[in-house]
Amino acid sequence: MGHEIGTNRYGVGAEPPAFARLPILQPGQSVPEGATYLPAGPETILWGRLPSRLDAPVLTIRSGDSVVVDTVSHEGILPDQGQDPAAYFAQHGVGEDAVLRDAVAIAARSPRDPAADGPHVVTGPIRVEGARPGDLLAITIERLEPRVPYGVISNRHGKGALPGLLPRSGTTVSVFAPVEERDGALVGTLPRVEGGPRDVAFPLAPFLGTMGVAPASDERPHSVPPGPHGGNIDIKLLVEGTTLHLPVQVEGALAYVGDPHFAQGDGEVALTALEASLRATLRFDVVPREQALAAFGDVTGPLVRTPEHLVPTGLDPDLNEAMRKAVHAALSLLQARYGMEEHLAYAYLSAATDFDVSQVVDITTGVHARIRIADLEGPGSEGAASEGTSSEEQSHDGD
């Protein structure tokens, strides 16, 4: 556990805010003994861009290895918030010892072009030995721990689902949202009116908004639009116990993660979710091309597996086209994995599968389908795939 914020900074005899009683995970603090650990700092992150094939890895691992990765939220370090997280969060009653030291270092020392780069901070790249173009990289989320007991929700630059209308001021509106423990669970809190009691509470469901691999390009991609490489996919299903499959595009995959969230509604309509820093424990497995094709067909973009669902995705600047791409991806998956004829797969999707909008605010919009595994792999199912996750996620022999 991280250290708790002392009460003295709130005045003698004063009761600290409820969020101030929760732990802080500073860099390197409370990392499990023997774990492979990747901190977030100016030497191990990119701010506003994603790794290209030319970027040197900051860590090299083998297929099947787990890594503890610190991530840092961009909220609180951006220029429109002063690019000084200690001063920014002090306005909301956060003591200096509760501000992450790596966030302070990134804000002060990491290069970023505000006119050309995105807002997100990503940790990496991580080279996975044996990963080759045509394979899949399976990233399993084993654990997600909040590093701080607070986050920020922002609407900026006239973006979001209502551009030109909100924010009404035309400038950034950043809403501070502390986390509290209520009835044994952590919740985000908001007031109904500015300065009022925080009587609106919603459950936390932490996930990483950005998970990806390097594209086969010399140029570092902008951090905002997602693509076949993954990136800023903002799929809130990627909580603990789920796996993201990504088509490997360069030797070693060069994986990265970031844009940590505490909670998000599908659509992410205001522009950001409850953005806040997380410590992630992730397992990286190479799925060789032959096994990947047998398990999923030809995967050309992010594919999520949860305990209950297979989740193919569609990405496009046009939301209608993103929907069509998600349907095509779902049909391809059903045909390859379960041998369903196209017209029957189409009927099944229409009757039994939800297509959800991941987000509409990242230049490239996202739609994802939730195909229930039990429908196709339940007891007595003739079309059940014979292999499980363990056999799908095997590395190349000898790599």
From TrEMBL:
<dbReference type="InterPro" id="IPR004304">
    <property type="entry name" value="FmdA_AmdA"/>
</dbReference>
<feature type="compositionally biased region" description="Low complexity">
    <location>
        <begin position="377"/>
        <end position="392"/>
    </location>
</feature>
<protein>
    <submittedName>
        <fullName>Acetamidase/formamidase family protein</fullName>
    </submittedName>
</protein>
<dbReference type="Pfam" id="PF03069">
    <property type="entry name" value="FmdA_AmdA"/>
</dbReference>
<feature type="region of interest" description="Disordered">
    <location>
        <begin position="375"/>
        <end position="399"/>
    </location>
</feature>
